UniProtKB/TrEMBL annotation:
It comes from Parageobacillus thermoglucosidasius. PANTHER family: ASPARTYL-PHOSPHATE PHOSPHATASE YISI. One of its GO terms (molecular function) is protein dimerization activity. It holds the Pfam family SpoOE-like. It comes from the Bacteria. This is Aspartyl-phosphate phosphatase Spo0E family protein. The lineage of its organism: Bacteria, Bacillati, Bacillota, Bacilli, Bacillales. GO terms for biological process: regulation of sporulation.
């Protein structure tokens, strides 16, 4: 499940930040990967928006 992946990546990012610094390339790369996982989760769980669909006549 993507929630587990998000939590694992978050923990990895924290460890990298504490070890290498918040602006280290390893930390930034991990942060970007975390962003991708969060975006994936949001896409998968977002409600379907029918308001922009054309209304049949």
């Amino acid at each position: 499940m993507v929630i587990v992946l998000i939590e694992e990546k978050r923990q990895q990012m924290i460890e990298l930040a504490l070890t290498h610094g918040f602006t280290a390339k390893e930390t930034i790369q991990c942060s970007q990967e975390l962003d991708e996982l969060i975006n994936r989760y949001l896409r998968e769980t977002a409600p379907i928006d029918h308001s922009s669909s054309p209304v049949p006549q």
